[in-house]
Amino acid sequence: MIAANNTRSTNNDPVESSESSPITGAANGGSSRLMRQFGSLFQPAQQRNDPAGYVEFGSISEGDAHSGRTLGTFAGVFCPVALSMFSALVFIRVGFIVGNAGLYVTLLQFVIAYVILLFTVSSVCAISTNGAVEGGGVYFMISRTLGPEFGGSIGTLFFLANIVGCGLAISGCAEGLIQNFGPTDGGDVGSIPDGRWWRFLYCSSINTVMLLVVLIGAEMFAKTSMMILGVVVVCLLSTYVSFLSMGPMEVAIPVENDLVQNATNKALGSYTGLNMSTLAANLYSHYGQDYTSSGNAVNFAVVFGVLFSGVTGIMAGANMSGELKNPSRSIPSGTLSAVLFTFLCYIALSVLMAATTSTFLLQNNFLFLGPVNLWPTFVTIGILTATFSTGLSNLIGSSRVLEALAKDRVFGSLLNFVVRGTFKSNPIAAVIASWALVEAILLIGSLNTIAQINSVLFMLSYLATNLACLGIEITGAPNFRPTYKYFTWHTAFIGMVGTGVMMFVINPIYASCSVTLCLLLVFALHFFSPASQGAQWGSISQALMFHQVRKYLLMLDSRKDHVKFWRPQMLLLVSSPRSCCPLIHFVNDMKKGGLYVIGHVKVGEFSENDSSNDPTIEEYTQWLSLIDHMKVKAFVELTLSKSVREGIQHLIRISGMGAMKPNTIILGFYDEEQSKDFFEHENSPYKTAEFDDNGIKLFPFRRSGEQKPLLATDYVQIIDDVLRMKKNICLCRHFHRLDKQMIARSNHIRYIDVWPVNIFEPKNEDPFDVVSQFMMQLACIINMLPVWKRLELRVFLCESESQPEPSFQMNSAPFERPAEHRLSMLLKSLRISASIHQIPEWGKDMDVSRHRNILKQFTSQSDSNQVMTEENVNRSKLYMQRVNQIIRDKSNATAVTFMYLPAPPKLSTIDYKEKCHHYLGLLTELTYDLPPTILVHGINSVMSTTL
């Protein structure tokens, strides 16, 4: 039996679920924390195992709240941010920017860059002060806000950004070495050789030294961030002093600049000291060529890409939140003060360069600061410390992001080597993998080219951070309460648009590739990632969908419904899904994009004296797992009620929301057929052990010999309730025989049959009334789907010769009877492709008119004063058996049969209980041994012949 209401669980027969305790992510065990020092420098600490099978970076426990948080605003935020934002730009490329773009454009570019950074800092501060940011920095923030798909993809790009940033810093460090120790005017003895592959060798050597530092002494280096920043600031001050005190001089152009150098004439550039003429000459743009990248032309985009690559360190303070005494205060104040400090330093440096150095020298010697400095060694020290520390920071940062991706199992087992390759909390495998990728980046060679790639990748990370904050703010999430008060959705929106636009301004190709890669990662992670963190982390997509669905549900007005846009909205009432898997799947096909709700009534009482929880809460996750297993697009509604009938009334009323309410109720048939367990049957496509919990079967169903908890009278009353609540109803029988795989491959199964005749009261006047139209609509929907499309739709016309034919004025086709012609014209006007089949036996062998009055006794047409006789009951059964034989003879190749369901007898009739039993008995005889059959009763018109 596929009866949806043949069995019910009761409070005396509880079913325990293996998933009754939802995974929350706050598992027992120690907390996990990655110490992040100096921008992206992290020191992994104790980790805890998450019940979902991955490691989550949780909150700091009370025990280590004071021992682990030791840094203040200056050491913990200001120093890492300022040092990361100076990077390779301050001593190596500001002259390149001023010399090509001119002072006005340079100042404009710094303003644009810092405005973008300022708004992004607002988003960073908002997320950082709304909860602890743990290992992985920006990856942690985005993944825990946007969800695993977006978080994993953006985290991967941020990992690549750190790799490229490390390559950029190493290239700058190598330039500093070549400038100070490489060939000069005459190729001094003892100087190191220069050339493309020599430079790659130097870069590789620096990269290897960084690798050794990370593997051995990264923690010690992290504690020296204040001292390193002090060295850089002293070197920078020496540059300012030199600009103000040094007089005019000639500065040699580097020998590798073959754009202006030749073998006979050694080119020189002029340093004039403070000079108004020099300032005037440098006010406007003079774009030239980049001698470090084979003479490529320089333009606004190239200059801005180089500029922005040097100021991408704003995340360094947020990465330190686990070590700060007061993150909510230190991150905003430390980051903003560092941004302001570096902005003023860059502006002052740009103005002094424009006022003291000729355009020719600025464009052709990117390292001219050394020769014009009072103490040239200071510039060398500044270049080496700034670039080496930034490169080291990025190398360690990228390895920690890779470690976080591996522990979150974003890419499944692909990154297992990272987790296994950890020694004493140091992710050695991740560090070596990062080092190898940096080597690949160094093959690019040109610092300016690397800078553009670096800028695009960091901008994409910043765009995602702004998008995360904007999404949370738009959805109005109650738990988004950052203590940073200067954040609004306007700041996030401006930051997002600014980063998005400037990405494409810098380099449209790099930006397009980055966005494409990001989207590909999003789709790949969505469909193929084994990670199941969405429920534990929270996903912004769920919040956005809730926000939009609520808005559109409010706009959806049931008073504006029109028959042209009608679609079935199904409520399938299920007792045990074990016995009706094919029916669940069939209804999913029949919904045609409409609402599909699977409803279940649990019989019992919700007593105030009962200390246990509502059992439907515990079982709900089991039903959601069922939806996943069945792969149907449905919602689940469970209710607890004293009786099945009362519970079904509740489900019909409360299922859905707003204008999206079920209009069609589907029940299994009430009969004595033995139920089949599709979860255990060997040849079942639904076979699974997922719902067997230590020998206890979830979703139990009635076994052979067990008494039905639902009486036949109750079942008929449920049908009557549905119709009185103005809902369409379908009774489904024999669906345990439905095999979609066989239908798809078998040539024997060829038809979908519709019998639009009320067997209990056949008429010729209207062969296609409201009920018949409804069942035809359902048949058409099934016939539209790929598996069912190859089947032919057949409509059977049953005419009684004892009924006089109505007058018919139109010219009918030859050999076509008027009733058939009317039906044919109606099908044509409704755009239904179906063949019409006459049933000759109907009028010849059966006295329909004699049985009509007898059959009325068992339907809503019954006269309340009419008393049944045993003779009438027997005659009715014989009549139904003859009708059943006719239908069976036509159904040898039928996949599904749709039949007319008459309304049940009214409650006010005499012998109501007996009539209910006979009503069900006649339906049972009518549908005996047929293919999967749906008895349909519709109450409203669902078809339209107009546009």
Automatic annotation (TrEMBL):
Coiled-coil segments on the chain, per record: none
Residues in Amino acid permease/ SLC12A domain copies: 83-571
Compartments where found: Membrane
Main location: membrane
Pfam families linked: AA_permease, SLC12
Composition-biased stretches (Polar residues): 1-23
Region (Disordered): 1-28
Boundaries of every SLC12A transporter C-terminal domain copy: 582-672
Membrane-protein topology: Multi-pass membrane protein
InterPro entries: AA-permease/SLC12A_dom, SLC12_C, SLC12A_fam
Assigned keywords, A-Z: Membrane, Transmembrane, Transmembrane helix
Membrane-crossing segments per the record: 74-98, 110-133, 154-177, 197-216, 228-247, 297-318, 339-362, 374-397, 428-447, 453-474, 486-503, 509-528
Record-given protein name: K+/cl-cotransporter kcc1
Species per Swiss-Prot/TrEMBL record: Aedes albopictus (Asian tiger mosquito)
